[in-house]
């Protein structure tokens, strides 16, 4: 996909953060936008910032498989085609394996993994039919390394990575006109940490302050990096200097990265 003008782009989680920034970046490049979120007020605010763009908004819970498939049909009918799908919606949980509840574990997986998997599969026939499609799935740096108290989030984001990398190879081997990219953001200045669920023993405010200190990249910068990666058909899009550092750490050390992460976590997560 070398040209974005007039392409139909679908973005989940467009009511704030990276999703909103992506909507603005793609609108500036002439995309026609199908934006969704579970937060009606946030979604309306995003749409209000896109004056002059062709935008349709949809209230969508990505954990609802049937709603996602219905959404794909609705968008395809409304726009006549679908070219770009960005499965961005996500949530976070900070809790140990011992402490987290089944409900919280399921909540993270249903949104962060199944929302991506069902969103991809629902739109894939439309992307193929367009003759020039692209799937962009949001993983995380936590899809590259394991981090204490992030086991559920790690599980979802590692799963997104594996699913997406497999899909990219399938599209190439089958000669289908769909590019596939997996995005690994580092610390981005969004509200995901403030909206995260916490285990009972967690010092929530201290952890959120710690995340704010580590958030190096603005959503606007993240969006520009992602859009550039789409235009370059990058398989893996690393967002932020911390993402590049973590990727290098994993490549250089393999599983030996774990003591370093444990040392960092002892100072910053066990508070």
Automatic annotation (TrEMBL):
GO function term, MF aspect, one: oxidoreductase activity, acting on the CH-OH group of donors, NAD or NADP as acceptor
Keywords, in A-Z order: Oxidoreductase
Gene3D superfamilies the UniProt entry points to: NAD(P)-binding Rossmann-like Domain
PROSITE patterns in the cross-refs: ADH_SHORT
InterPro entries, per the entry: KR_dom, NAD(P)-bd_dom_sf, Sc_DH/Rdtase_CS, SDR_fam
Domain called Ketoreductase: residue spans: 7-191
Family annotation (Pfam families): adh_short
Keyword tRNA processing part of the UniProt annotation: no
UniProt similarity note: Belongs to the short-chain dehydrogenases/reductases (SDR) family.
Protein name, as recorded: Acetoin dehydrogenase
Lineage: Bacteria, Pseudomonadati, Pseudomonadota, Gammaproteobacteria, Pseudomonadales
